[in-house]
């Protein structure tokens, strides 16, 4: 049985879910938030230590302003309302991605959630927001250059947003699309990858557990035989 320390998820398919219901893409984003809550609860119950959720990519700025605003409002609301609950459950919250161009208000909310939950040990949630793996890598390389230290695997690891975290054991992408969309290109080097047909709002605890069980039975070689 493979131990599982870190699950990463590309939560895709919200927009299509809303349109399929003959409603708006934004309704799909709202429904997607409910799936996030369910998956967090189950990950905590399973005693998995890290959960990374891809919420907004550096490329998602190309979407219509109305959708972007809706997504960020949803996120701010979620953090304001749920931080205490996360804290009560011993969950540590961390944003991964660039905070620079995010609004002052959101920066304050993110910092507050990070600060309140910083000593929690049950589960760490990384919310990938304004996240792009290529810029993360460039950023790390620039930090290494500035410090005049060796370019090595461990030095690169240390200068990514995911410093001090194990690499994901498992990546799940919902929404029936098979691509990485600039997500954790370095950290996923040896992860098991599951592409799930269901759209994110339709993804259930049962689906999640099926994937986790499959993962446990997979033979992970890491180059060996
Ligand atoms: C959610 O899914 C991911 C986000 C960028 C918030 P999408 O909004 O990409 O949904 P689809 O893929 O268009 O259905
Ligand atoms: C990836 O989904 C980003 C998130 C889930 C946040 P997208 O829906 O933006 O990916 P592409 O653009 O279809 O590759
Ligand atoms: Mg999508």
Question: How would you describe the overall organization of this protein?
Answer:
With 225 residues, the chain is of the alpha/beta class. It has helices spanning 14-20, 25-45, 65-88, 104-116, 133-147, 153-158, 205-217, and strands at residues 6-10, 50-57, 91-96, 123-131, 170-173, 192-195. It has a 6-stranded parallel β-sheet with strand order 3-4-2-1-5-6, sandwiched between helices. The longest helix has 24 residues, at 65-88. It is globular, with a radius of gyration of 17 Å. The model has no long low-confidence stretch (mean pLDDT 98). The structure holds 3-methylbut-3-enyl trihydrogen diphosphate (2 copies) and magnesium ion. Magnesium ion (MG) binds at residues 12, 175.
Question: Can you give me a brief rundown of this structure?
Answer:
The protein is α/β, with parallel strands linked by helices and 225 residues long. The chain has helices at residues 14-20, 25-45, 65-88, 104-116, 133-147, 153-158, 205-217, and strands at 6-10, 50-57, 91-96, 123-131, 170-173, 192-195.
């Amino acid at each position: 049985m493979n131990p599982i320390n870190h699950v990463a998820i590309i939560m895709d398919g919200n927009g299509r879910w809303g349109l399929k219901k003959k409603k708006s893409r934004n309704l799909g984003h709202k429904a997607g938030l409910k799936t996030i809550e369910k998956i967090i609860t189950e990950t905590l119950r399973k005693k998995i230590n890290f959960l990374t959720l891809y919420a907004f990519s550096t490329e998602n700025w190309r979407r219509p302003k109305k959708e972007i605003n809706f997504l960020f409002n949803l996120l701010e609301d979620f953090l304001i309302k749920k931080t205490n609950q996360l804290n009560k459950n011993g969950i540590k919250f961390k944003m991964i991605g660039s905070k620079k161009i995010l609004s002052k208000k959101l920066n304050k909310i993110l910092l507050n959630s990070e600060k309140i939950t910083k000593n929690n040990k049950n589960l760490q949630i990384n919310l990938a927001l304004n996240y792009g793996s290529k810029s993360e890598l460039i950023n790390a390389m620039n930090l290494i250059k500035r410090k005049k230290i060796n370019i090595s695997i461990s030095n690169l690891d240390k200068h990514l947003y995911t410093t001090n975290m194990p690499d994901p054991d498992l990546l799940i992408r919902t929404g029936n699309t098979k691509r990485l969309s600039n997500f954790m290109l370095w950290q996923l080097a040896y992860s098991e990858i599951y592409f799930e047909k269901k759209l994110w709002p339709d993804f259930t605890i049962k689906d999640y557990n099926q994937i986790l069980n499959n993962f446990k039975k997979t033979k992970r070689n890491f180059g060996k035989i």
